[in-house]
C-alpha cells in the first residue's frame, strides 16, 4: 500500500517510508568507501592521501545542492500540505534549474583555483600533483553532483522514496565498475578514481531529471515556470543550515588534516581518512532518516496538523535513541576489521586508525539528535534556528575542541574532539526544542488543573 505524506504514521509505516532514503544514503556512502578502498589498495598511499586532502573542498562546493534540496523540499512540502500542487511543481522545477545553473558557474570558476587551494591546505610534492589531477577531473561533474544531492530530498516530497534508492544503486554500481576498470584494468591511478566518480555522479544527476521530465505517478514533475525570487530566497534561507553544516564539516576535515599533519605527519591524514569513510556510512543512516521525516514534518506543518506533528516527533526521538546506541557499539567493535581493510599495508597507520576510530565512535551516541534537530526546523521553514544548531555543531564547537583538546591529551585529544563537540551540540538542540515548542506544538503539554 502506498504511503502518503498525509497518513497517520505508526512505527512500521514511518520506517517503511524512511527505509528508501536510509538505504539510498547508506549505499551512496558505501560506494564512496569502495572508492577509497580501490584508491588505497590499488593506486597507493600517495593517491589515497591526495584524495583525502582535496575531497573536503569538492564537498564544500557540492553542499550547495544540499542547500537547495533541503530548503526547496521544505518550501514544496509545505505548499503541497496547503493543497496547492500546481505551485509546488512550479517551485520544484525552478529550484532544479537554478541548482544546475549555479553548479555550472561554480565548476567553471573553481577549475583554476584548485591547485592553490590544495597547496594552501597542506598538500605538497606528489600528493599535491595527485590532488590537483583528481579535483580537476571530478569538478567537471559538479553540476550533476549538486543535482544528485538535490534529488535526495525531493524524492521524499514526491512520495517516491524507493526511487532515490534505485538511482543511488545505479550510480554506485557505475562508480564501482568504472573504478575497477580505470584503476585496476587501465592503471590510471588517481585519475581513474576521479573519472569513475565523475561518471557515477553524472548518472545520479541525469537519471532523476529524465524521470521528472516524463509523465510519472509522483506528486512532482517538471512544468513551465517563472522565476520567483521569493521562492529561491526562501529555499536558500531554509537550506542555509545544510549548506553551512556541510561547508563547516568540510572545513573541519581540512583543519583535522592540518592538525594531524602537524602532530604525527601524513600517516595521521591517512588514518583520519579511514575514519571519515566509516563515518560517512554510519552518519548516512541518520541523514537518510532525516531526509525521510522532513517532508512529513513540512506537510503536516502546512496542513496545521499538530497531532501528527507530535506523533512523528515522539517516535523519531525513540528511533534515534535505539539507533545511536547500536551504531556506536558496532563502530567500536568493528574498528580492527575496518582498519585492516583500508591500511593493512602499514602497521603504524592501522594501529593509529583503530585507536582513533574507537574514540571517535563515541560521537555516534549524540550526532543523530543534533542532525534531526537541524532538519526538523528546516522542515518547519525556520532556517535561522536550523542554521544556529547546525553551525554550532559542525563548526564552532568542533573548532574549539580540535584546537584545545590536543593541548591536553595530544593525539587522543584529536579523536575525542568530535564526541565532545557533539555532546555540547545535543545540549543546544534540547534547548532549541524546549524554547520553540510553544510556537510549533510538536510536544504535547498537559495543562495544569
Question: Mind sketching the topology for me?
Answer:
Blueprint (H helix, E strand, L loop, with lengths): L10 H33 L1 H37 L3 H26 L3 H7 L4 H14 L3 H16 L3 H25 L3 H25 L15 H10 L1 H25 L1 H37 L3 H28 L1 H9 L3 H14 L6 H13 L3 H27 L1 H30 L9
Helix pairs in contact: 1-2, 1-6, 1-7, 1-8, 1-11, 2-3, 2-5, 2-6, 2-9, 2-10, 2-11, 3-6, 4-5, 5-8, 6-7, 6-8, 6-11, 7-8, 10-11, 10-16, 11-12, 11-13, 11-14, 11-15, 13-14, 14-17, 15-16, 15-17, 16-17
List keywords for this structure.
449 residues, 17 helices, 84% helix
Can I get a quick summary?
The protein is built from 17 helices and no strands. The chain is mostly helical and 449 residues long.
| Main sheet summary | none
Return Rg in Å: 21 Å
Low-confidence stretches: none
User: Could you state the order of secondary-structure elements as H and E?
Assistant: HHHHHHHHHHHHHHHHH
Description:
The chain contains 17 helices and no strands. It has 449 residues and is mainly alpha-helical. Helix 2 packs parallel to helix 11, helix 10 runs parallel beside helix 16 and helix 11 packs across helix 13. The longest helix is centred in the N-terminal third of the chain and has 37 residues. It is globular, with a radius of gyration of 21 Å. The model has no long low-confidence stretch (mean pLDDT 87).
Amino acid at each position: 500500500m502506498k504511503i502518503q505524506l498525509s497518513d497517520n504514521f505508526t512505527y512500521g509505516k514511518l520506517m517503511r517510508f524512511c527505509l528508501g532514503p536510509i538505504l539510498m544514503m547508506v549505499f551512496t556512502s558505501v560506494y564512496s568507501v569502495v572508492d577509497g578502498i580501490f584508491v588505497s589498495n590499488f593506486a597507493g598511499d600517495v593517491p589515497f592521501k591526495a584524495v583525502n586532502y582535496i575531497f573536503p573542498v569538492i564537498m564544500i562546493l557540492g553542499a550547495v545542492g544540499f542547500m537547495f534540496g533541503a530548503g526547496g523540499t521544505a518550501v514544496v512540502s509545505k505548499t503541497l500540505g496547503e493543497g496547492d500542487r500546481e505551485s509546488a511543481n512550479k517551485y520544484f522545477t525552478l529550484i532544479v534549474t537554478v541548482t544546475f545553473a549555479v553548479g555550472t558557474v561554480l565548476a567553471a570558476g573553481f577549475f583554476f583555483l584548485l591547485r592553490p587551494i590544495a597547496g594552501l591546505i597542506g598538500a605538497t610534492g606528489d600528493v599535491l600533483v595527485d590532488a590537483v589531477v583528481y579535483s580537476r577531473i571530478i569538478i567537471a561533474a559538479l553540476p550533476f553532483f549538486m543535482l544528485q544531492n538535490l534529488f535526495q530530498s525531493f524524492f521524499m516530497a514526491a512520495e517516491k522514496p524507493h526511487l532515490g534508492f534505485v538511482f543511488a544503486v545505479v550510480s554506485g554500481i557505475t562508480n564501482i565498475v568504472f573504478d575497477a576498470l580505470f584503476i585496476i584494468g587501465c592503471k590510471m591511478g588517481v585519475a581513474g578514481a576521479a573519472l569513475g566518480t565523475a561518471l557515477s555522479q553524472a548518472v545520479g544527476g541525469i537519471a532523476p531529471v529524465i524521470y521528472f521530465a516524463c509523465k510519472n505517478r509522483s506528486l512532482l514533475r517538471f512544468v513551465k515556470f517563472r522565476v520567483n525570487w521569493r521562492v529561491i530566497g526562501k529555499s536558500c534561507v531554509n537550506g542555509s543550515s545544510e549548506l553551512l553544516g556541510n561547508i563547516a564539516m568540510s572545513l573541519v576535515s581540512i583543519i583535522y588534516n592540518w592538525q594531524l599533519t602537524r602532530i604525527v605527519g601524513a600517516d595521521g591524514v591517512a588514518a583520519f581518512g579511514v575514519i571519515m569513510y566509516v563515518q560517512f556510512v554510519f552518519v548516512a543512516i541518520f541523514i537518510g532518516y532525516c531526509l525521510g521525516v522532513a517532508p512529513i514534518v513540512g506537510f503536516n506543518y502546512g496542513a496545521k496538523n499538530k497531532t501528527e506533528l507530535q506523533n512523528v516527533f515522539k517516535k523519531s526521538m525513540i528511533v534515534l535513541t535505539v539507533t545511536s546506541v547500536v551504531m556506536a557499539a558496532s563502530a567500536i567493535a568493528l574498528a580492527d576489521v575496518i582498519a585492516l581493510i583500508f591500511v593493512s599495508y602499514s602497521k603504524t597507520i592501522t594501529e593509529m586508525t583503530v585507536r582513533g576510530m574507537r574514540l571517535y565512535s563515541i560521537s555516534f551516541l549524540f550526532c543523530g539528535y543534533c542532525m534531526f534537530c537541524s532538519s526538523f526546523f528546516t522542515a518547519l521553514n525556520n532556517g535561522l534556528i536550523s542554521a544556529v544548531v547546525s553551525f554550532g555543531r559542525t563548526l564552532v564547537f568542533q573548532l574549539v575542541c580540535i584546537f584545545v583538546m590536543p593541548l591536553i591529551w595530544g593525539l587522543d585529544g584529536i579523536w575525542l574532539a568530535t564526541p565532545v563537540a557533539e555532546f555540547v551540540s545535543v545540549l543546544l538542540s534540547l534547548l532549541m526544542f524546549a524554547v520553540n515548542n510553544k510556537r510549533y506544538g510538536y510536544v504535547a503539554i498537559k495543562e495544569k488543573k
